[in-house]
Amino acid sequence: MKNISILMIEDDEILAGLLIDFLNKYNLKVTNYSDPYIGVSALNVEKYDLLILDLSLPGMDGLDICKEIRAKNNIPIIISSARSDLEDKIIGLGLGADDYLPKPYEPKELYARIMSVLRRYKANDQKNENISHFSLNKNARTITFKGENLKLTLAEYEVLSTLVEKVGCVISRRDLIRLAPSLGDESESRSLDVLISRIRTKLKDNSKDPEFLHSIRGVGYRLNP
Fold first, then answer.
1. Which 3 state secondary structure label does DSSP give 146?
2. Which of 7, 12, 106, 186 has a 20 to 30 Å separation from 26 between CA atoms?
3. Domain limits of the chain?
4. For residue 122, which phi and psi values (nearest 5 degrees)?
5. Which residues pair with 53 in a beta bridge?
6. Which whole number is the average pLDDT over 193-222?
């Protein structure tokens, strides 16, 4: 089995060391950060297959971290916490965590939960690949929708290609603007909103009840496959 790369944000370094040693036996490469700010930043630098997230962290609450990460990233998240409050579990799962494992637990159980979550994600990815209405050809700079090439301006292509590459994930407005240099500076304009409206028109997507291109209030946009 290929190495699986896991990010852990856990300030109990003794526990983190034990889990890292155990999971390494199963070809699970774990990188731990006790500082939550550095841990969150690591997601923007490296690609990880899964996140193990503690809730009681110095300077940041794990639930806030879960919310922040889920708004931008589709990475599987397992919360590992000594906080046994049922409300925390309900909130964590509601914010987008895939599993909630209360401490203390055996490392074997964590391994089983990791593999279960990864299997679900793999199955969903394969399903999405099979049913996706979008296809991106980066070399030709074209996007097909339901088998037909879309006629897009450069700015429309830049925005839609970013959404297609991360289909099913919420992409922040800031990231869409950053990855679409043709938009220019949107600080005093609504150019991104206008562009999204034009793309919806070309997809024949109802803005009031969209099937494909959804606006996530206060965050950004998500493209359904």
1. coil
2. 12
3. 4-129, 132-223
4. -65, -40
5. 9, 79
6. 89
